[in-house]
């Protein structure tokens, strides 16, 4: 039995990766691990764009550019998030979301 | 009989998904970061498999080389060595897994029922030359404006990071 990998296989991988990230986002309570889950979600979206770019609109490169820009935005987002997390750790000695509730008041 | 390319694809998929699952389930945060790194490398391998070499290279440079190292450094700065993450409530884990599994099944049913208009399998891959020309083209369909916007965003993020992480001066009066 041979199954050539195609668009549906890639969509399966990206959907599975997205929901793995969502699961991590639900269960984790540490800000850095939540950030890691967000990275997984962003990567699944990138994979989706690349899969559609290759199998549905080849040669137009629109999905490819979306992926490049998402990677750039993800890098900026991770840098800002880590700066905030380190600042939070300095003031609260903890990076647990349960302890980061001062902004509410 | 499976061809080498097919086997390679399934190996890369297993690496990506397995390391992803381990990354969100392990209780040692440093191991979570390392598993995340391998998951990102697996995705870069899938891009190579799809013959998107440029995206694969960007993925390795930015994610494996940049973001993973950034996350590992921030773990060093904020965690005590050898300390495990606190155990989560089992109920929360079960309900999250259930919700996620149901959503996954629903999405996959939708995807498999959807008829894509045309699935092309033998297209010429994009070369770096084409990518560069289209990225800086100002004509119809060019990406010069998003490129500039992204460069402004990166500059703003850099300034923002410095401002946020700047150690506030002690009050001296």
Topology:
The complex is a heterodimer of chains A (105) and B (173).
Chain A: H1 7-27, H2 31-55, H3 62-92
Helix pairs in contact in A: 1-2, 2-3
Chain B: H1 4-25, H2 29-49, H3 53-78, H4 90-113, H5 128-135, H6 144-165
Helix pairs in contact in B: 1-2, 2-3
Measured distance between first and last alpha carbons of chain A: 61 Å
Q: Strand tally of chain B, please?
A: 0
Shape, principal axes of CA atoms of chain B:
extended
Order of helices and strands of chain B: HHHHHH
Strand content of chain B: under 5%
Structural class of chain B: mainly alpha
Oligomer: heterodimer
Total number of distinct structural domains of chain B: 2
Q: What spatial form of chain A do the alpha-carbon principal axes imply? A: elongated
C-alpha end-to-end distance of chain B: 79 Å
Biggest β-sheet strands, sense, barrel of chain A: none
Characterise the protein shown here.
The complex is a heterodimer of chains A (105) and B (173). Chain A is mainly α. Chain A has a domain at 30-95: Orthogonal Bundle (Helix Hairpins). In chain A, 73% of the residues lie in helices and 0% in strands. The longest helix of chain A has 31 residues, at 62-92. Chain A is elongated. Chain B folds into two domains: 1-90, NADH-ubiquinone/plastoquinone oxidoreductase chain 6, subunit NuoJ (Four Helix Bundle (Hemerythrin (Met), subunit A), Up-down Bundle); 126-173, no CATH class. Helices cover 71% and strands 0% of the residues of chain B. The longest helix of chain B has 26 residues, at 53-78. Chain B starts with a helix and ends in an 8-residue tail after the last helix. Chain B has six helices and no strands. Chain B is mainly α. Chains A and B meet through helix 1, helix 2 and helix 3 of A and helix 1, helix 2, helix 3, helix 4 and helix 5 of B.
């Amino acid at each position: 039995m041979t199954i050539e990998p195609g668009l549906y296989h890639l969509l399966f991988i990206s959907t599975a990766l997205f929901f793995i990230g969502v699961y991590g986002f639900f269960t984790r309570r540490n800000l850095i691990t939540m950030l890691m889950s967000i990275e997984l979600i962003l990567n699944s979206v990138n994979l989706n764009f690349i899969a559609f770019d290759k199998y549905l609109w080849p040669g137009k490169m629109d999905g490819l550019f979306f992926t490049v820009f998402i990677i750039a935005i993800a890098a900026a987002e991770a840098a800002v998030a880590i700066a905030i997390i380190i600042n939070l750790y300095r003031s609260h000695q903890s990076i647990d979301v349960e302890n980061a509730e001062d902004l509410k008041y | 009989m499976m061809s080498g390319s097919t086997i390679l694809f399934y190996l890369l998929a297993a690496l990506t998904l397995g390391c992803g699952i381990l990354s969100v389930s392990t209780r040692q945060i440093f191991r979570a970061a390392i598993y995340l790194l391998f998951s990102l490398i697996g995705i870069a391998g899938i891009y190579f498999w799809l013959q998107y070499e440029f995206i694969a290279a960007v993925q390795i440079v930015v994610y494996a080389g940049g973001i993973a190292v950034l996350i590992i450094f921030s773990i060093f700065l904020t965690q005590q060595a050898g300390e495990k993450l606190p155990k989560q409530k089992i109920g929360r884990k079960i309900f999250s897994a259930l919700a996620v599994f149901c959503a996954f099944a629903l999405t996959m049913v939708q995807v498999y029922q959807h008829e894509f208009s045309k699935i092309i399998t033998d297209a010429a891959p994009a070369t770096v030359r084409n990518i560069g020309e289209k990225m800086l083209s100002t004509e119809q369909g060019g990406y010069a404006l998003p490129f500039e916007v992204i460069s402004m965003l990166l500059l703003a993020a850099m300034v923002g990071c410095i401002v946020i992480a700047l150690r506030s001066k002690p009050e001296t009066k």
